[in-house]
Predict the structure of Metal-pseudopaline receptor CntO.
Amino acid sequence: MLAISLGALATFQLPHHALAQTATATADAALPPVVVSESAYPGLALTTPDSTGSRLGLTPMETPASVEVLTGETIRERGDQTVREAVTRATGITANPAPGNGGTSLAARGFAGQGSVMQLYDGTRLYVAAGTVTFPFDTWSADRIEILRGPASVMYGEGAIGGVINVVPKKPFRGPIQNELQITGGSQKTARVAFDSGGAVNENLSYRFATAYNRSAGWVDRGDSRNLMVSAAVRLDVSRDFNLTLSYDDGSQHPMEYLGTPLVGGSLDRSLRKKNYNVADADITYRDRWTRLAAEWTPNERVSVRNQFYYLTSQRHWRDAETYSYLPATGQVRRTDYLEILHDQEQVGDRADLTMKSKLFGLDNTTTVGFDVNRINFTHSSNSPYGGTSTVDAYNFNPGVFFSPPGVFTSPRYRTHTTQYALFGEHRIALTQQWSIIGGVRFDHADFSRGDLIAGTGFDKTFANTTWRAGTVYQFTPDLAVYAQYATATDPLGALVTTSDAQRNFNLATGKQAEVGVKQSFWNKRGEWTFAAYEIRKNDLLSRDPVNPAITQQVGEQSSRGLEASASIEVLRGLRLDVNGTVLRARYEDFNESVGGRLVSRAGNVPTSVPQQAANAWLTWAFLPQWQFGAGLRYVGGRYADNANTVRVPSYTVVDTVLSWRVTRQAALSLRVYNLFNRDYAEAVANGGQQWLLGRPRSAELSANFYF
């Protein structure tokens, strides 16, 4: 709801707290009044039901898995305006954002990329195409973000061996209409206007509307960016037991047309920090539209039925000179890979589930069964084979314009059609009041066809997989639980809906995980902590044949084992500390590459873009009535940019701060400083690690929020 809420102030009961809490409540004419506590900060939310770790309505304390919830209020209080910024403050989640992956690629538990860390919006995924996901991106419309670490194929299908990120949007709610307006201005010519409105129109109809517009001049030459997000939903309560919700979300993005800074002698030259070597008429554009109709029927307290029909589209366009190399002999930069790519993606589907609570031999049982069907159409256009070369002075140059090699034009190159269905089920049995066993199974089937629009050729492929998980939770007390889990998973070799001709004879990669952990709330719920230990193995990677390096086999193996911990503690009244961290060992166990026609083993090496240490801390201090200070630290360990582990990207630490003042009940001000110590760091790399996509330097923003 807001970027500068002061939820932890003991002396204020803020109207937007009620807005946030009622948004997640079940609409009912007899809703109890919302009680606003002195401190609305949720900590780790171990006792708040989440929908991502299980469909059974369990809390993180009751779930045999690592589940974390970031409330929208906490996210905006910290000033995290993008989903990527928000989730990388969670335990063990790091980012590898680049224009080619939509700026959203994440890593978790030793596995990186869109094919291993799944992203959902209200439980629905737009399937990854050519390694790209572009929605959701703005946190203004988020009620909360739920994070499930570790394999989640049994919940959501292929592509989630590292984890799942689920952005749950704000929902219509019963109650008086409430509005919020945010206006922001800052360095780098940054401007933001956001509006949120929701409430009941009458006794049967309620709505929610949120929109946010952002623009900035960026931190490199010609670094302009802008985006617009619109989220709207209308809910009709047909009866006390049955409701319908129609939602529409629209995202339009024009990110910085910045592809990175070339290294000089293997290091960053700060004099090139603000240079943008892309062409003058470069273009990067994403447009996503999501329409969903959800129905929920709860005839009694033991039975609930949910269904969601969805229609999703995504159009993407890149036109850039993408690869830059510094030439020390001349002090020039060579630009290559003049490429233009367009994606046209359409997905239509339906998902339904039935949850039943019952007694079996006197034991409490909860069962969920359901199905998911969808159809995905994808068209890829480009100017392949990519070419084009130009050389410019490293400091003073005319950026020039985009061009393709002679005789090469941008046109549709291939088209795919994917029809999928899945059947899934989960079950929980409470053997005692303290001990429960939880299991799940899912069967996925996909018929895939790809047509080459240039050569007139094509192929068909069928994928079928069954995944399952089993776990147990033992609660010594309502505030202390230990758990164990075993899960299986599947991952695509690239992206399922853009399976290439070279991958047509292979199946999906498979994986398995064992995990144990403990969760506790203590000190009269003023503190919470979690700990998890896990091991994941992913098999059937594509690897070169040791006898004949020209032949590719599906025999490779990758592993990861690690430890994760998180804690949230109200140290003193008005003073709260949140910390988390992870250490892991990620390795290729069996993986060969062909280098110059020679077979090279990468066994024992660390996979690319995977940091083996990461940590976060956030301190919130309500030091005076109506005043609050916050400071956060984000640490990301070193990563490798190549499978040979010869190019290492340094670790980095970034500190952000915020000072907020609740002027009146209807107005608040907040001053944020990002990257307080102005550190230079690489968020992502390209060109074999010789090109860094640099993160935001020090910048400041002043926001004003109005509630009416």
